[in-house]
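The protein record filed below.
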Amino acid sequence: MGNSAMNKRVLVLTRVFKAPRKLVWEAWTKAGHIALWWGPRGMKTKVIELDFKPGGKWKYVMTSPNGAEFPASGVFTEIIEFEKIISSADFEPVTHNVIITAIFEDVGQNTKLTFSVAHPTEEYCSKQEKIGVMNGWGANFDELELYLHKLVISKT
């Protein structure tokens, strides 16, 4: 499969956080941190399972203010400490059978996070884009940004 065909199945979001890479990595990979920022504003997240190693499973449940539950789960396929995480992922009820990749890079004192979602087909990718899944991830990263800001301030 050529690169252009692959690119039509992948949605990418890039964000620079005003925090050191080790801190962004910890916020992304430690259950105690994840529960405090994961999900759009107003959602509460419970980490049910987090076996952070290749082949390890993860499962988070987001609960909306009205009590509706939205489970998210997957299996880690590749982890390079402080650099890269690749995982399969299902986000109920909206997104299924995708591969998510997070790449962490230093940009001066800050951290660039390149996040991508690879879909099984171009059609599915297009449908996911139209329903706004990347807006959801953007909202998720807004919460991460606020959370990291609090952590950075508490360390100074």
